[in-house]
Amino acid sequence: MTDRAIIVAILILFAIVTGIFFVLFGQITVKKLRKNPKTKDVLGLEYMSGWDILNTAQALAMPRSWAKKLEKSPLSSIYANSTLLLKNTTKLDQVLAVIFYWLWVFTGLATILLVLLNTMGFFQE
Q: How far is the C-alpha of 58 from the C-alpha of 93, rounded, in Å?
């Protein structure tokens, strides 16, 4: 197997694990938050189905200082309210959010990097 094939296989594995965490986080945490009258309207703008899962994970996984800056920006309605979400989630919810969100970010960025390196001819046959 070539280096590229090994990297692609690892990224596919990460993508599968990320998908599993997406479903788990959505069913365990976001489903509960959608039913709560206090939190159902603070999950951020939903561009497409399931986007509120990403907004919620981002709000719970980002460092507090970054989340506060997003909440104070003119585009704050796009993002989930981290302060309210932290009050209404458990440690398990927050750990799931951190694992899911950063695995999702890493997998996406690594895939983009792999495509760019491949396009520039970094991997020779």
A: 12
